[in-house]
Each structure stands twice: as structure tokens, then as C-alpha cells.
């Protein structure tokens, strides 16, 4: 059961210095419920792959198939967590986290109950009525993670979600995200440069590398790891 297929994808950007090949013929698949990480050096094209999968980039070659459907823009079953915090500054913590439920038309009382569960999960109970400007960067990132998890996306894409967090929070939050991912059997792609994090959380790690001539390739490592 393959959930996400990226087939021979290339992306070139035209810049003043000329054409930059950000991604060059990358292919991989993720099975339903699988947790896959991509690691690789800065500039190898990880974020470009992430943005292509999220439907945020057009003009690439190759194809991206999500749940059997070729995508050409943002897909409703995909939830994304970005490296840079992306909270709504004019909304309190609880109204940030409840936002996707509000869009779905979930009544206020009900969406607050659900939002509180996720706020607790990311360790921000007691901060529900604060505004993002009253929180640290790491706390804002946790709000953004809770806001993505709250609508239980079938496919979860995360680009360096824990980069702004201290080590302790990173491990704690990683464990919680993994627990939810396993409970919901979410198909998950994590982009990280933290190899420990990739190995701890993933079923499989894809290593994106540069080869001589700047062609990028993916090396696939399976982690035979018992799961609880
Ligand atoms: P990574 O996430 O692995 O650090 P990126 O996907 O951000 O890599 O970038 C891959 C390459 O593509 C880099 O050389 C980067 O400078 C270039 N690149 C990415 N986005 C753009 C863009 N919008 N315009 C021009 N070049 C870009
Ligand atoms: P950053 O990495 O941006 O500093 P953190 O999320 O690690 O952000 O939090 C930084 C500080 O914010 C903590 O040292 C603590 O003082 C405060 N803080 C974070 N989470 C909580 C919490 N759940 N309860 C109370 N204070 C917190």
C-alpha cells in the first residue's frame, strides 16, 4: 500500500547567476503509515522536495502521487509543519491550535476540548490565552506543531520542526509526535539534519547526497527497529 510516490522529480530555478538545479531526478516511495526521514547536507534539495510534496511549488519535472492521485497543488489530506514558526500573531494559543477545526466548522466548545488535548501534548497547558508574541520561539513552534496535528492529517510533512527547540523539548516532542503518528497510522515525512532524531523516529531514513557533477541521489536505509 503505497501512499506517496515521488517519481523522477527535478526542479530548476532561474537566478541571475544562471540555472540552479535544486533537485535532480529524485524518486522514492512512502508506504501508508510509514515514518520516513530525509537527511542530507545543506543545499542538497530537501526543502525543495518538501515544498513540491506539499504542492507549494510548480514547474517541476516528474510526478508526485498522493493516495493514488497525481497532485498539482496543495492536497487536503496533507498537513505541513515548517522550519520557521508560522503561528497567527493575532490569535491566542488556543485559537491558533483550534483554527483548522474552526475552518472545518467544529463548534467552539468541542474544538476547544480537542485543542486543549494537543496543547497539553506539546507541553503548553496554562498558556492557552497567551498571544504568540508572549511566548519564546520554541514555544511558538510547538503551537504550530499542535495546530497541524489537530486536524489529524493522513499525511504529515515536517521540515526541521524541532530545530528551534532545546534538546530536552526536542526529544519529548519527538516521542509525542511518534506516538500520535503510530496511533493514527499517519504517513509521515520528516526532514532533518539531526541524524539521531531521524534514526529514533523513523522506519526508514533516506539520505540525499551530492554526487560529482552535482547530481543528487537518494540512498535508502531501512531501520529494523521493533515498534511498540
Ligand atoms: P536544503 O533544504 O537541502 O538545504 P534547498 O531545497 O533549500 O536545500 O535548496 C537546494 C538548492 O536549490 C540550493 O542550491 C538552493 O540555493 C537552491 N534553491 C532553493 N530554492 C530556490 C529558489 N527559490 N530560487 C533559487 N534557488 C533556490
Ligand atoms: P526556546 O528554545 O525558543 O528558548 P523553549 O520552548 O525551549 O523555547 O522554551 C524556552 C523557555 O520558555 C523555557 O526555558 C521556559 O522558561 C519557558 N517555557 C517553555 N515551555 C514552558 C512550559 N510548558 N511551562 C512554563 N514555561 C515554559
Structure overview:
With 228 residues, this protein is α/β, with parallel strands linked by helices. The protein is 31% helix and 30% strand. Strands 6-7-8-3-9-10 form a six-stranded mixed β-sheet, with helices on both faces. A four-stranded antiparallel β-sheet has the order 2-1-4-5, covered by helices on one side. Helix 4 crosses helix 5. 39% of the residues are buried. The mean pLDDT is 89. The structure holds adenosine-5'-diphosphate (2 copies). One adenosine-5'-diphosphate binds next to helix 5. One adenosine-5'-diphosphate is lined by residues 13, 15, 20, 22, 40, 42-48. Belongs to the ABC transporter superfamily. This is ABC transporter ATP-binding protein. Keywords: ATP-binding, Nucleotide-binding, Transport.
**Principal-axis shape:** globular
**Order of strands in the sheet with the most strands?**
6-7-8-3-9-10
Share of residues in helices: 25-40%
Bound molecules: adenosine-5'-diphosphate
Terminal residue distance: 21 Å
Q: State the helix count.
A: 7
**Mean pLDDT reading:** 89
Calculate Rg over CA atoms. Answer: 18 Å
| Strand segment count | 10
Spans of at least 5 consecutive residues whose pLDDT stays below 50 are: none
Structural class: alpha/beta
Beta percentage is 25-35%
What about the largest sheet? 6 strands, mixed
Series of H and E elements:
EEEHEEEHHHHEHEHEE
Protein name: ABC transporter ATP-binding protein
Keywords: ATP-binding, Nucleotide-binding, Transport
Organism: Bosea minatitlanensis
GO molecular function: ATP binding
